Amino acid sequence: MQFNTYLKYSDIKVELVQVCDAKLLDRLYAIDISVHTHPWSYDNIKQCFDIGQEVLVLYVKNHIQGFSVISTVLDEAELLTIGVSIECQGQGLGEYLLTKTIEYVINKQCHTIFLEVAANNIKAINLYKKLGFIQVGLRRNYYPKNSQSEAQDALVMSLQI
User: Fold this and answer.
1) Residue 38 binned pLDDT confidence (cut-offs 50, 70, 90)
2) 128 carries an active-site annotation
3) What is the distance between the alpha carbons of residues 56 and 131, in angstroms, rounded to a whole number?
4) pTM (2 d.p.)
5) Which of 128, 142, 143, 150 is the catalytic position?
6) In whole angstroms, what is the distance from residue 125 CA to residue 110 CA?
7) Nearest Cα to 27, choosing from 107, 75, 84, 73?
8) Which of 53, 66, 101, 110 supports an S-S bond with 77, CB 3.0-4.6 Å?
């Protein structure tokens, strides 16, 4: 994996964060609303920490620039959301975060990861396919119409690990 020339692996880390404060929540929410057409609410993100979902945070030069949320049950995981800040997109950081998320799930002894992705999100679909995800289903009108987009179908994808 190659990053833009100004970034080194030592500049980037992904960590499990189990305790959140208002500053962290504000940043995660800001990232989510800037990168998704159907973002989570502030309270949805806050609840992740309260109900046992796992939040992995991407730091670039010690600044929060992305996150993923997963839920695991027995030997299956679901990637509930993932996003990298607009200013850090196009640098390989989404792939890095997704790879670290997959590694985390493997370490939890999971054998399958599931996710939903908007059928028109070609960039994300291509990344998932690049890392081995395949389409296993379709959910019609999963993402409702809102001020940013028409109703969208979701592809259900999985990765066997």
Assistant:
1) confident
2) yes
3) 18
4) 0.90
5) 128
6) 22
7) 84
8) 110
Listing DSSP states for 64-86 in one string gives EEEEEEEEEETTEEEEEEEEE-G
Active-site option among 54, 104, 116, 143: 116
Please report the domains of the chain, with CATH numbers, ordered by start residue.
Answer: 9-160 (3.40.630.30)
pLDDT band at 4 (very low <50, low <70, confident <90, very high): low
Average pLDDT on 39-48 reads 93
Residue 98 is encoded by which pair of tokens?
């997704």
In 20-111 the beta strands, taken as DSSP E runs, fall at: 54-60, 63-73, 76-84
CA nearest to 16, candidates 100, 94, 75, 90: 100
| Contacts for 127-130: CB closer than 8 Å, 24+ residues apart | 127/94, 127/95, 127/98, 128/98, 128/157, 128/159, 130/95
> Which residue is it, tokens 């970034």?
7
Q: What are phi and psi of 129, to 5 degrees?
A: -65, -40
